[in-house]
Amino acid sequence: MAEPAAALGEFNFAGDDHVVPFQVEGLDVRGRAVQLGPMLDAILERHRYPAPVARLLAEVVVLTVLLGTSLKFDGKFTVQTKGDGPVDLLVCDFSTPENVRAYARFDQGLLDRAIAAGQVEPEQLLGKGMLAFTIDQGKFSQPYQGIVALDGATLEEIAGTYFRQSEQIPTRVRLAAAELFDRDDAGKPRHRWRAGGLVAQFLPEAPERMRQPDLHGGDGDTAGGSHKEDDAWMEARSLVETIDADELTDPQVGTERLLYRLFHERGVRVYEPREVFDRCSCSREKIKGVLKGFSAEEIDDSQEDGAISVTCEFCSTTYRFEVEEVAQAAE
Asked: Do 244 and 106 belong to one domain?
């Protein structure tokens, strides 16, 4: 049962589509939490994805937003999966400071067979492959990419593995997505998507306290066995693992209320929320720039009835160019 709002004092709640940074000083933990509503719903409904695909993409959007809002520089953060399952591609871009776009690709026949067989768990839909995290600071720097295998685990678990292997920061990630069926103000039936998530990281002042138990077979394996985890991190992780998926998506359980329920005994501090928006980075000028690189033969092959139409896979906006316009730009 949710804590009463009065228990949190008198302050404004962040609400949907706002990432809330937080700190638990008693446990040396920092993190971010979010509930996504209208922004996510707009992305998913634009493409009318089947529910299993929409649910997967929603989790990727949450993960991207949680990690992307931590960037301290101008750039782009991308989370992308590639697998051999029915949903072979999921991609979400976060462009600082606040813009999000996302897209999913799937094989309808394979998806139908998976649904009929009841094989709709995330790991079954994604199959074997990889999850990539890419940070791009612009044309004056080389992009950084970290890759972790899709190996039959959930996106939560895979993200945790990435931080453990690549960042070496003890991290716990929680993700959830849900469909809501209710009625609008006029009493008409309404369908909406919501999602939520939380990332908590152990960041003590003494770096030696961050040491985690070694991964099996890793370079850190020792004859003496695995290292014991720090008690503070064990407590924080255990608290985060008590979160129900419904709490992450329930519009009646605000982000601050959830953080209070988890950490009030240790004292949790929340910071200014960061709002995120459904905004694509495509434009007519950008696409025209791509078409400039087309040869005369490619332009001819791409045209239909004297024009070339290009539809953005992310936002579904269609841009139409007259062949003469593209040909002149390509010269």
From this structure: yes
Query: What is the Cα–Cα distance from 53 to 11, expressed in whole angstroms?
Result: 37
Residue 157 and residue 131 in one domain: yes
Q: What's the domain range around 96?
A: 18-210+230-278
Query: DSSP class of residue 282?
Result: -
Residue 294's SS3 state is coil
Residue 13, in any domain of the structure: no
Q: What is the pLDDT of residues 82-114, one digit of tens each?
A: 999 999 999 999 999 999 999 999 999 999 999
Closest CA to 291 of 321, 268, 316: 321
- Report d(CA 156, CA 174) in Å as an integer: 6
Integer CA distances (angstroms), 228 to 26, 94, 212, 224, in order: 20, 36, 7, 11
Instruction: Report the C-alpha gap between 211 and 209 in whole angstroms.
Output: 6
Q: Cα angle vertex 29, ends 28, 34, to 5°?
A: 160
Question: pLDDT value at position 211?
Answer: 64
Q: pTM of this prediction?
A: 0.87
Residue with tokens 């980075």: 281
CATH code of 312's domain: 3.90.1280.10
CA dist 56 and 92 (Å) reads 11
